[in-house]
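Hi U.,

Before I forget, here's the chain from the pilot set. I'm dumping it here mostly so it's searchable later in email.
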Amino acid sequence: MRHAFVQPSGQDDNLGDSALRAGLLQALTHAGARLHVHLAGQTSDYVSGLPLVSDGTLYSDRDKWLRASEGVMRPVYVLNAGEISPRADQPYPLPDRAREMERVVRRGGLVIAAGLGLKDLETGAAVEFDPVLREAALVSWRDPGSRDAAGFGEVAPDWAFAQGSSTSAWEDEGNRPYTAVTLRFDRPWPDDSWFRAVRGFARRTGTTIATVAQVARDAPRAVQLAEVLGGRYLGAPSTRHDDLDRHMRGVYARSLAVVSDRAHALIMGATEGAYPLGSAADPQKIERILAAAGLGALTGHHDSIADRADRLDSERTRLAGAIQASRAEIHSLTARIRTAFDL
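Structure:
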């Protein structure tokens, strides 16, 4: 049994942040690790979305978490998964974190960095990555663009693709009455042609527009979208991530497609059988994250959504295969983590 020390922090109101970290924690457990989890300052809403196993240990104090790593044989230092935004004028990880990792390696331990993604590829290509990360036992990125910009590591789809329903349990197209829509609160409002295209898609497919918010700050925009689109806002019963996860997946499981500029709304929709129709003012990030799973074909700028929506019928048949292939890649990544543990 290897002791894995991980800090799966994220934005408290962002379901996607807990969903991808849930995938990482489950993979570490499946690989044979006993988890030591540091979660300082996270709300109970966020923590409810994480699979914290009974034989794991939860720490609110980082110093205690670090001291615990010094008290076990061959500890595993696990970098948090998800988006990173290193600065071109600073090393990554920063010196304090790099020294923590170096101490683990000197004691015969391992560094694992699985599921990283660069926010900005141009900046990422200029970053000086510390040797302790470059030479880690395993480094994987969630899209090829991030890996290529960094210049090292391997690629596997985002951990959130491991979550959700089996493709064999998906509802048939005839039992999907909704087109789900959710947009970020902090991006430009689409123009009138976008709204016409979304309403037209719903008419053509005989679906009702259902707006949702899996990030609490998106809720006012979701209400406004429902009003303008002539749809329904389907609010969650609470802000706890376990409740929110069940609610969102329930909506996506009854949706033909999900229209969003949120990467994890698109991913979670896809894992419940709703085709991800990515639409954003700046789609480069969601496009490459979905492309890593073979699902980037219908993602692009707001102004071309009508043309992409018209191609949904031909693309929808590929969804189950793409999700199965993504999960197989994540299973293989988990197996490589286990192999690293056994060395």
